[in-house]
Amino acid sequence: MRSWSVHVGRLFGVEVRLHLTFLVLPLFVVWTEYNANHPANGPRDIALAGIVLGCVAAHEIGHMFVARSFGLIPKAVILLPLGGVTVFDESRLEKPESVEAAWRREVRIALTGPLVNLVFALVAAGVIVLAGVGAHLREWPFLQSSNLPRSLVWANLYIAGLNLLPAYPLDGGRILRAFFARSIDPAAATRRAVSISHALAMVLMVAGLFSNTWLTMVGLIIFSAAQLEERAVIFQSVLDNVRLEEVMLTDFATLSPADTLEDALDKAVHSLQDDFPVVRGSDMVGVISRQSILEALRLEGNGYVQAVMNKLFEVSARQESLASAFRKLTSRNLSIIPVVEDQRLVGIVTLQNLMHSMALLAESRKLRRDESNS
Ligand SMILES: [Zn+2]
Asked: Which range has highest mean pLDDT (9-18, 131-140, 203-212)?
């Protein structure tokens, strides 16, 4: 999900990433202006791209504020030239909500973005008319770097209009997906919305070849945004639906608190594990990492595992979801979670092993789905 975007900073505590399609926007503006026989003007072209970026950011901030009022805290927002994709952490919703409540929430969050742009366009147009700037608001082309005030009005109108297209993950498409989700399960609703979105993107891309190249650009952006979102949904459904017993390591080495650090290091060398459960008899008493064994040996010489092991750890049950294990690992900065059943250690889950299995599971689900689609 991160491969096509770059980190640009934080806004209200939310990570902001710029999608790579944004970086080609100034070039695209120069190119279309050149084709339209307007002399390209570097600073003004960049200013036009900046206006688009500003309108998109205002749009996303609108979404974020409404989402927050519903208790949804955005994890990251990826800005695309038409709008953004806000990645929410739905697992942190305070209480499970009804289908109807989710539908109302989605519609409200989705409509706020375009509404912000409409308000901005109206205010900008009002100011331009009152100030008598002479921006010729209704003159073609609406977006042009030689007339930045007019571009500001139209960039907002375009962004509002485009986002209402039923092309997931644009806002219109989100409303469509929420509508599907009233009758089918969320992952299937997303897939249906993504297929409609892909079809629409194709139509725009082809239509753009025969009319306005901007349409092709819009189609391309919708296509990549839908792809982005689909991957995030697959990832989330793997997290929610896979139980720890399906991915935990059952063949692992343990240490005893009475082992010396040198013995422990010797065991660590012969295993692929980075982290070890420490077991006395059949009781879990701690966890220790290869790193801390090495550090203790280096700083204090040989000693016992007992003295170095971490006694504060979290255990999980077999039936817990990956999402829950993942939260435990990341929120407490742990690197291993012992899986226990009736107080007995039956497996371990490590960050390294989770990353690995999630990638594999997402791949195999995608394969299975492609098979069922063909
Ligand atoms: Zn939006």
From this structure: 203-212
